[in-house]
Amino acid sequence: MGIPIHGKGRRRRSYADYQPPRRHQGPRSDPFRIVFYILLIGAALWVYLNPDVVRNVFAAQFPKGSPVASTIGQPTATPTQSVDYAAQAKQSLDAGLLDDAIANYHKAGQAEPNNVEYPFQEARLLIYRAALEYGEQYDQTIQDAEDAANRAILADPSDARGHAILGKIKDWSDHPEAGLSELQRAVELDPDLAIAHSYMAEVLIDLDRWEQAQTTIDKAMELDPNSVDVRRDNGYILESLGDYASAQTQYEAALQLAPNLPNIKVALGRIYRVNGDFQSALDQFSDVESLYPNNALIAYEIGRTYETYVGDPNSAAEAYEHSVELDENFVSPWLRLGMLYYMQESYADSASAFEKVMELGVEDNVDVLYQLGLDYVNIGDCAKAIPMLTKARTLAENDDRILDAINNGFETCSEPTPTPRKTGGSNGSPAPSPTPAK
């Protein structure tokens, strides 16, 4: 603010000499002001003397883990920080480290909650991670992805990306019709959004609308052939149609765009083994295992490759054993171990594996019941074998292969002194691989 000069020859007044105009001061003994100060001091004193009450009020209002509670007492993030977090997320994604990328996109979204890009990317990468999971862990990741997608929509309901990723998530949570509805909304908002068409094609395949799915993925490819998601979804659609050679081409193109993306590597590994390139399949799975050494699903996929495609039951058993070491509640490797041990005539080990399968909730599966029953027969424990075989015979219906095996078990147990067969450890002589589980 400048000081005006009134006429020539008048001395310029220094800023140091400037005094603001005096204001009329009211009476200092204003009773309302005194009451206000007394109340303010009293309230501050009450808060000071009752910290537990105040803490409980805040805990009820902002439960632990809520976005607001997690920011109480923390420095306020800024849009500039969101850019830094997003850059870190991109670096982690390029390295194939999904967890780090997801965490940084989440931080970026907290720093700039009105930016759709960050929760959209968070939801997208959570879907990628779900492809490496199963069971309750998968369900939780899908729920986290849906929460992120809803934040993207909340940030800007007119941005098609939030609706598009929510549509894909709905499909992955076994609600394809709801997913289709969201994707139709996304296409209405932005007809040229390639991923909206790509995600919709995946939903249409899951709804058995084959021709419409093909037309829709073709549209997505026309809009953006350099999208990792479009290439991945095209591979999935071709794989579902049984065109494995073309599916391999699409997955390879996706991997060229994102060389370390683990979900693409796993999908490509599965296609390689179907197409007979077992070493390339194992290479893809090993690459993912190096990034995620504690992932039981990857160890299981390695076991499946050795068992069903390579025909190496010993290496398969080793991989399955590693899988259940990582997660003893993972049913699939226990099931395969039971089959492998049985084929190797390691009946005690096979029985232990199938007992674990039943303990984990698979109690009415005819294959598990009759295999466990035959294990008990072969180790000479007919008291346990008979109930298993009886229940299996009820479920087998007209499957002559299973019924013949069950009848042989009953016949063995009807002998005066059933003779136990070999019950050695898992290093018994190898046998041909059993039929792969569906």
3D architecture notes:
The longest helix has 21 residues, at 135-155. This protein has helices at 31-49, 51-61, 67-71, 79-94, 98-111, 117-130, 135-155, 160-172, 176-189, 194-206, 210-223, 228-240, 244-257, 262-274, 278-291, 296-310, 313-326, 331-343, 347-359, 366-378, 382-396, 400-414. The protein has 22 helices and no strands. Helix 17 (313-326) packs antiparallel against helix 18, helix 20 (366-378) packs antiparallel against helix 21 and helix 20 (366-378) packs parallel to helix 22. Helix content is 70%, strand content 0%.
> Structural class, judged by helices and strands?
mainly alpha
H/E element sequence = HHHHHHHHHHHHHHHHHHHHHH
> Do you know the CATH topology of the domain at 79-191?
Serine Threonine Protein Phosphatase 5, Tetratricopeptide repeat
CATH superfamily of the domain at 79-191: Tetratricopeptide repeat domain
Distance between the termini: 82 Å
Query: What is the beta-strand fraction?
Result: under 5%
CATH architecture of the domain at 79-191: Alpha Horseshoe
CATH class value of the domain at 79-191: Mainly Alpha
Low-confidence stretches: 1-28, 57-75, 422-438
Q: What is the mean pLDDT?
A: 85
**What is the helix content?**
55-70%
Largest sheet: none
Shape by Cα distribution = globular
| Rg, Å, rounded | 33 Å
Number of helical stretches of at least 4 residues: 22
What's the total count of β strands?
0
